[in-house]
Structures
1.
Amino acid sequence: MAALLFTTLFTEKFTMTLIFGVPFAAAVSVFYFVMRKCMVPADDAAEESSGEGNPDGDTELIDESV
């Protein structure tokens, strides 16, 4: 991957790929990890709201901010 990014510098048509693509990929990665940290496993949320665990054992993630 690094070789591909490096050679993109020398191709005039693809130079803008580095200028916009790398920061966009970094922003999407940061957004993903921030949202992932804000999510709580469904088991924990079920226990907090009803006092019971999830009987199916599913580990779906739910958004606590809603």
2.
Amino acid sequence: MKPGNLRKRGAKSSISFHEMKDNLKQTHFHLVKMSFFIEREGVNMPKTYQEINEKIARGEAVIVTAEEVIDIVKERGTKEAAEYVDVVTTATFGPMCSSGAFLNFGHADPPIRMAEIELNNVEAYGGLAAVDTYIGATQPSSDKGAEYGGAHVICDLIDGKEVHLHATSPGTDCYPRKEIDTWVGLKDMNEAYLYNPRNCYQNYNAAINTSKKRIYTYMGILHPNMGNITYSTAGALSPLLNDPLYKTIGMGTRIFLAGAQGYVSWMGTQFNSGGARDDKGYPLGGAGTLAVMGEMREMNTKYIQPAVFERYGVSMFVGIGIPIPILDEEMMQFVSVTDAELHTNIMDYSDKDRPVIKKVSYAELRSGSVEIDGKKIRTSPLSSLTKARTIADELTGWIKKGEFFLQEPVMKFPVNNTLNSLKIKEGGNK
């Protein structure tokens, strides 16, 4: 049968092949219009990582910071803002004690199986393979104490300096050398990567001291008689507060880490996602944390710096930025949260039980003072909002230039994880 003689079964008239093509074109046009109508007017059509990355590659993606998106939502509404914005950048810069670095020195001739290792007189862990080590940020030096520690070694290496390596060994048949004394820099090493087991707390309590004496803590110096309040979160700019249920931040997420591109490698230690949350899902306590890693040779000490807390010890300020893809309206609702909507608890650090003195918003903390029992108490942040903003802007620039693409997590983190406490068990060997 020729195309021109096609006849619909049961019909009295025939339809030509060309008429059929025209009808199909019209049907396709109406389907496209219907799809557009559904997407724009009715049903929320989620974006995908691939679509957003393709827009980044073409230079068409809309990327804004978590502070900038708040005004966009006020102006356009959540639905339209979710269609307009593709990526929201978040960031934090604060003290993160649970940080450190894996290093591989390479083998000397004759070789040594390093058992006891020091870098600039700071002990590094020797319980790995022959020339691997892990140096923790909070480890103090043997000669300067807490005035110089692991964080300083890490930052000296990132700055391009050589550090003094001294290692000893009992010696073995295959590793006969018993001692090595030399100087090494990142350029001499095979691998050098930051691996931080617990960074980027989702939220954190504020600290106060109700006792009559000054106390020295990882939250800084707390003056007696409720003399001050300290806190350490970037509030509405903080990464995990913009993704409170871990919809987009998980294992494999690509991040800004200390000036380099890094990754989320796992849940951070003390991952307490099952803690108390408000009715919108935002945590009131520490909640989630992240384990992160990245190449030290690509880092910049503008975004990672050692710190010494008086009568407490060494820590390290780490800069982290995380892009959040706006996949749907729910993500836009999460990232448009304000400091006034985010809360934490002020806890008494002079009491071992850390009782809650008051629940406050980050807007109150950022105002410079909080009123408790009729007394205005000065507040001060340990984390730097200025530096966090710089990191968010830097990350935004990378994405706009097509130098940074989003990585979908290969595993999502649980929202119901709880913590164990260490129980003291007495009574001989178990």
3.
Amino acid sequence: MSKKRGIFGVAGPRVLYFFDGRDSWSSDDDSDSDFEVTPGEAEKLDIKIHKKRIKKCKERINGVAEKDVYGKSKLKKMNKEWTSSVSTKKGHGSRICLQNLPPEVLVHIFKFVVKDDNVLPTLCRFSKMCQNFYVAASHPSLWKKVDLSFGWIKSSLDTLKWLVKHRLTQVEELNLGSWDQLKDEGIQIVTESCPTLTSLILFRCKKLTYRSLTLIADNCTKLSALDLSFASGNVLNPPTLRYFIEKRGANLESLTLSGNKLGSFQKTLSSLKDHCPNLRSLDISGCSFFENQNNMTFPIEDLQIAWPKLQILRLNCIECRVPPTTLERQAMSPGFPELEELSLASRVNLQAYNSYGANDEFLSRLLKTSHKLKYLDIRNCRRLSKNALENIPAGNLQHLFMSRCTISEHGGLCRTIEKWQHSLVQLDISWIRDPSMEMEQAMTELAKHGDQSTLSIIDLSGSPVEMNSVRLLLQGCPSLNRVDLSSCRSISRGFKRLYEGKELDELRDNIS
């Protein structure tokens, strides 16, 4: 009997191999270049090739979760946690992947993914991975904080209808900022279909009318935060705004109305004072009013009693004055003990020609008990003396903006920096008229703490700072990552620009 011949000649001795179930087979005959399929084996080979293709497809599907751009590290970590070796009858290991978990478990995992990130486009990408991911990513409990202002989806009424019906039934915080085509019909759909809504942002929605604000007041019973900044002029007419405040003021904690026409300044403040005891944030920056500036007063003591929880107050470009009051009433006032941010920036050079805006008395009465103040903006305030900030009780101010402020012109810059040099993170002293000697002393104060300095951003544009002071500042503040030297009169022309990142490191090396 003749020996059987293989493709390389006479067949050698038969060798037995043992393969672990987790190992892959070595080269098969069907991978050889001269392998020919006999008619009887064609059907078996087709089945074998089909199984290989299915296996490769499954491997690609299982790898999607680890290759996705968004949430890459989180998904990899979760995959490791949920992957385990399970004993089988044959003793081999099998892998449990994320896509094989029940949808309710995936929902719980996805909550950690979208906790700090926007649900879009993360959940949309997850829903394309497999059927289980689609079911889990569509669960309304994941769509509680939704920001639709970035342009991830088309801002149309049909899109909003579909989202409200299939995704936003449990939404709590919704941002529809810059939806130029949003009208009253869209607001009606949202307010009637989202009963759990607590925060609504309608920034720059120009086509809304007063009917939208009425719908919000009537349907959003749990609303605590509303942003209508730079909205349509019709949406905030005085009667409608007053109706909203009276209807929802008890739960209102944050109200942003900047850049709008609000009718009467005094009536607006009076409504907020009488109906918003839980107010924590108020922003009416840049608003215009129908009344004359002579009649615009800011009743500090009355508001301090009405808003004991106030944390953020923004009155930028509001030219008002404080009404006279007795010293006894000032002493009895509780102040704003929870206040953390105060913005009183004025229009450029406006206060040089009138008697309105923040002065020493305004600041002292407003901040008498504000020990928690972290953010203070007094840019362009032209009525503050060099002692204006000395009596402020805040001991750890972090962000200070005093561009074009008269405090520096009266020699108060060094005192101000000496008071908060240990806690300042951001400082704006651009376009001040302080003499170069005062500026050098201020830079010396900032550089005293060395490695313990927390200053990371400083704006010196248009100031009389000299290169020696800049060198001292860079050496004494290692945490600095942004310095603006544009338009500095005493700096060489090649250095007058903004420095950050690698450019700032090069500047340190060049001038050291």
